[in-house]
Design a protein that fits this description.
mainly beta; 4 helices
Length: 271
């Protein structure tokens, strides 16, 4: 299946409106829609509405969508030229806005290309230990991902994990958006406390998507200050191609035990 089917995104009779049933398979262990899945669905909707591939997209997360709800995604084309389209998507459950996404889409020919970032040297997926969740998340997106630790971190703000979606036939920008939402994992590895963090945003910049079974999610925590963490993710194909980069900020809380529940927007925290 492709990423749109993997996410469960559905079209409507209106080519500018899509809907996403929120189910546990695209949700976190905490019981709300995984931010990368929300961004991936918005990207897929904009690509479907415009007929152009995404170049970059940035999401601001405003509220939670819980399993059992339906996320409606409305696409607006703000400007469209010969090669690029500027668009935005609003995801909402009823009257509650869940995320806003701005994006540029298009494809151009240009006589030069290159890659200057370097993939870290890590063992191949078959030689890496399986990544197990820290808490019981038996009914979440983690059940649909195969992840192997390539580098579990050494306190330097860097870690990396091989990831694949076994049901997916090919990597695409929406799929990379799902895998790019992993700065919170890097924060959990880097910080010397048990923590919980929620993404405030996610920006993905798509470079060169190539066929690959595994994606190396190369996480780099840049800074933690004032209760927020900031970082970047490089998404590599097995052959060393840099397919995309992502960047995020996240709100960090100390973990408060097995029964801990994230605050809701109504409680004054819109993360």
């Amino acid at each position: 299946m492709d990423a749109r089917a993997w996410l469960g995104l559905q079209p409507t009779h209106n080519p500018m409106r899509w809907y996403l049933p929120v189910v546990p398979g695209i949700s976190t262990g905490g019981g709300f829609l995984f931010g990368g899945c929300a961004l991936g669905a918005a990207i897929s909707a904009m690509e479907g509405s415009t007929g152009r591939p995404v170049v970059w997209a940035t999401a601001q997360y405003l509220s939670f969508a819980h399993p059992g709800s339906v996320l409606d995604i409305d696409v607006t084309v703000a400007a469209s030229g010969r090669a690029t389209t500027q668009a935005r998507a609003i995801g909402h459950v009823g009257v509650t806005e869940i995320l806003t996404v701005n994006a540029a889409l298009g494809e151009r020919t240009f006589p030069q290309s290159g890659q200057w970032a370097e993939m870290p040297v890590v063992p191949p997926p078959a030689e890496c230990p399986r990544r197990e969740p820290r808490w019981n998340t038996t009914n979440s997106i983690l059940n649909r991902l195969d992840q192997r630790w390539a580098d579990q971190g050494s306190g330097n703000g860097r870690c990396s994990v091989w990831s694949r979606m076994p049901d997916l036939l090919g990597v695409s920008a929406p799929a990379l958006a799902v895998l790019g939402d992993y700065v919170p994992l890097g924060l959990g590895v880097t910080i010397d406390h048990e923590i919980h963090s929620n993404s405030l945003d996610n920006t993905i910049r798509v470079a060169n998507v190539v066929p690959t079974e595994w994606v190396l999610v190369d996480i780099r925590v840049d800074a933690v200050a004032h209760g927020f963490g900031h970082g970047t993710v490089h998404l590599w194909a097995e052959d060393g191609t840099l397919m995309a980069t992502a960047s995020q900020s996240a709100l960090i809380r100390l973990w408060e035990g097995e029964g801990y529940r994230p605050a809701t927007p109504a409680e004054g925290d819109a993360s």
